[in-house]
Amino acid sequence: MTVTIAPETPLQDDVRELVALLNAHLLPLSPIEFQFKMTVEQMAGADTTLLVARDDTGRAVGMGAIKQHSPEMAEVKRMYTRPEVRGQRVGTAILQALEALAQQRKLRVLMLETGSAETMPEAHRLYERGGFVRRGAFLDYPDSVHSAFFEKSLAAQPGR
Q1: Contact between 38 and 4 (Cβ < 8 Å)
Q2: Residue 42: φ, ψ to 5°
Q3: Beta strand ranges found along the chain (DSSP E)
Q4: Tens-digit pLDDT profile for the chain (160 aa)?
Q5: Which of helix, strand or coil describes residue 61?
Q6: Which residues contact 110 (CB under 8 A, 6 or more apart)?
Q7: Considering the entire predicted model, what is its pTM?
Q8: HSE of 109 in the Cβ direction (CA atoms, 13 Å)?
């Protein structure tokens, strides 16, 4: 599948739909207090950049964001692809675009929190294939069996 991936505002109806689909997908996977969601309004903040993947008809089929926490570190947030495009490497393309954006900004590390391996094995495979390694809790996330934490160092990438 051919997609275009570009920064967009989250304050549009088709992105709101993706966020609603993601939230509905996550709801049964872990207790609500261990679901660290961003609203579209939060994603519209100056510290966050949302990338939207669109198919050749212009339909939003996936998204991912980075929230910058410091001059050196950002967090991957709100990764999602529609079920009908899973397995077509849309998630991989979004993750690669987020990494390229982080490298343009000269960030040294990307981190992320996601559900446990039991509830989100596909997400774990995506991140591990993308070069992310498991780590302990970061920022103010609680260390919990319901969460898994990953990071990717960008400092050691060729050409940096």
Answers
A1: no
A2: -65, -40
A3: 4-7, 48-54, 60-68, 73-81, 109-115, 133-135, 147-153
A4: 799 999 999 999 999 999 999 999 888 788 778 788 899 999 999 999 999 999 999 999 999 999 999 999 999 999 999 999 998 999 999 999 999 999 999 999 999 999 887 888 999 999 999 999 999 999 999 898 989 999 999 975 454 4
A5: strand
A6: 66, 73, 74, 75, 76, 98, 99, 102, 132, 151, 152, 154
A7: 0.92
A8: 12
Contacts of 84 (CB under 8 A, 6+ apart): none
Reduced to 3 states (helix: H, G, I; strand: E, B; else coil), residue 160 is coil
CA distance 146 to 106: 31
pLDDT score recorded for residue 120 = 86
Token pair listed for 47 = 């510290």
| Residue 124 parent element (H or E) | helix 121-129
Q: Enter the tokens of residue 65.
A: 């964001």
Tokens of 113: 């929190």
The helix-helix angle for 121-129 and 90-104 (nearest 10°) equals 50
Convert 107-131 to b/e letters by CB count within 10 Å (16 or more is b): bbbbbbbbbbeeebeebbebbeebe
